[in-house]
From TrEMBL:
Domain Cation/H(+) antiporter central: 527-613
UniProt domain Cation/H+ exchanger transmembrane: residue ranges: 59-430
GO molecular function: antiporter activity
Family as reported in the entry's similarity comment: Belongs to the monovalent cation:proton antiporter 2 (CPA2) transporter (TC 2.A.37) family. CHX (TC 2.A.37.4) subfamily.
Transmembrane segments: 46-64, 71-87, 107-127, 134-156, 168-190, 202-224, 244-263, 275-305, 325-342, 363-382, 417-438
GO CC annotation: endomembrane system; membrane
Naturally occurring in which organism (per UniProt): Citrus clementina
InterPro entries referenced in this protein's UniProt entry, alphabetically: Cation/H_exchanger_TM, CHX17_2nd, CHX17_C, CPA2_transporter, Na+/solute_symporter_sf
Listed name of the protein: Uncharacterized protein
Amino acid sequence: MSNSQELNRTDNNYISNNLVTCQYFNVIHSYGIWHHNPLQSTTPVLLLQMVVIFLSTRAIYFLLRPFHQTTVMAQILGGAIIGPSILGDDTSTLFPMRNRHILRTFAEFGMILHIFVLGVQIDLGLIKHIRRRAVAIGFFGCLIPLIFGMSSFRLIQQQKSRFDVESATGIAASVAANSMTSLVVVTSVLKELNMLNSELGRLASSAAMVSDILSWITCMILNGVSDAYNSNPMKPLYTFPSLFGFYCTMFFLLRPLTIWIVSKTAEGESMKQSHFISIICIVLGVGFVGTCFGQGSFLGCFVFGLCLPDGPPLGTQLVNKLDFFTSGFLIPVFCAMSGIRWEMYLLKESSTRKMELIMVMSYIGKFTGVILSSSFFGISFIKASCLAFIMCCRGIPEIALYCMWKDKKTITSQIFALLIANMVIVTSIASAVVGYLYDPSRRYKLDVRRAISKTKQNNLRILVCINKEDNMNPIISLLEASNPTRNFPITAFVLQLIELKGSVTAFLKPYHQHTQSVVASSTHLINAFAQLERSYHGNIVVQHFTTIAPYASMHDDVCTLALDKRAAIIIVPFHKQWGVNCLVESSELPIRALNGNILDKAPCSVGVLVQRGKIKSIRPTFDFQLSYHIVMLFVGGADDREALAYSRLMVEHPNISLTVVWFVSSDPDTSSGIETTDDRDLDNHAFDEFKDSVVTKKITLRVEIVKDGIGTTRVIQTLTENFDLFIVGKNHDPCSKVTLGLSEWIEYPELGIIGDTLVNSSEEFSVLVVQQQPQEIRHKSKAFTK
């Protein structure tokens, strides 16, 4: 049958309102450029389209990243640039109309899986922990923009130049969509800005969850009313029961089945391929049934994801399996396709101004609702403004909604273009403004920071960080060496560091608020420190906390907890682990970056603990022989004085001996360093005070006169075989004669010059590198004094 005959059988209205394309059947594969143009076949065109999309979106993201722009905005702009809005008809060869449905189908398949994974990552149990201020911000942040937008819409409709019925329906739907805020979008924006676990990030996430709940309830009511008004008044009577049965089947049948499939995978092992495919088939089946009931494949899969437990093992396994394929491979295509469908020339129509006025009023209402409700709870204007900007952000769920509405003719192409334009402009401005105005570290960046040498309390408060069980024994040994007594007890705040996987919400909680999965992973940790408490009869008090957050922003939780608990020092494990014969067993670069952020922003002193080889016991023996030998290497400076103060606490331990080695340049008068006379006076005063305060024969004081860094290294090499723990300061005068030449070969700047020299030794011992405060702040304070 010819194409013309086929068209003659089709209704004329259908042809006039839809774009109809014709193509040959056998155009999937190409036989090469010697036979015909490869771009006339679907497979070569699809491959080239994806390559162009990836290159354009990554290039745009690379250019916009310094301005705190999100990945989704870069992908939309990349699609718009290669689409007809910018290049015009030149894109018809690469993106012909006959091939776009293939690319869209490919992208929407990835979107279904991505929406499902997003649903899995949301923990509905957080609803019961939402505070009143988050409820108020989420509620009024939805209600007031809806009132502002609909009121302005009603005023315009009362004028002579009112909108037609089709445009009016689309504008009303757009106002309702703009008044809502998606939790998935808020958490993704916060994660890209490294603010997910900040105080503002947690408040925004809670408020967005309230907004999401309100949007679900509103959509259910509006869908029922719309069906009753537009088609059959009796339709909701059988629509709601069928949907209720669909969701009950999902929760009471498919949810237990999926959890049972996941339970067949042993802890710590990867999910079997057959189990993974079974879950994917269930998801696709849910999407199909949801489409049959008029809910759309996206909505059904998202709700099914919400039914499943987040985090390990299910959430983590699914994210590991699907995240790269969906987020890195298919979602860029989906977002770019929305940019390609973005017909910017439609924004030139005369009615665009009135539509934009309504949407602007909706955004003004969003700002008004968020700022007023925030100010009622005592939130500052700057912080409330940043919160309002975050609540205005749009992302992948909104793109999916706009595309679905355009396909169903709920909104016109003009409204679709206006919605995409507003989303790109508002989200881009919001990301840039929030990234510039809000600094989570401002809360705990203090000019005068807590330190052991400055503490006036009769106890020592230490925050210790543990990211895996191998860190427990070295840290427990260090706490024992800190000499907890009845007159000078130690309060240890143990913070377990867990990377955020399989969930979109980060949290910092004490042990009694842990979920069951977190409690299971913390059992050995809790038992080990409970045994430590019992051994010292209350001289050590331990409080347990857990943070689950991205490593890029986890330092916010560490520094916040140190500030709230008034810790004098934070102990973090080094990112490398050594085994037998000083062979490196593991190296974790995210932990190294985390340690660097803590060293830069901590509100107190920081100690980096390096464990090399086996751990030696510090417990007293029956013959009371000294079994743990510590050496403190003193070069000079604030960090060395802090390390000396920590060593003074340890020397009173009945099972510890201490040796202090002070390195002095053989030609101190020629020093061209930045160390001032005041620093040298403080060093002398600290050393004299140390000698006067220690009344024991277990301490040895040595002064080593060296010419340069080579002489310092030779002295250190003579000490490595005789001691179990080295304590050093991190920062020293880089131009000091004592360390001259050593900075050229430094491998680990976070350990300082002396610490790096010790770590690269071949002997088995532990190293504690102490920093009192960041060197940058120290130099600023000196410049201010001058």
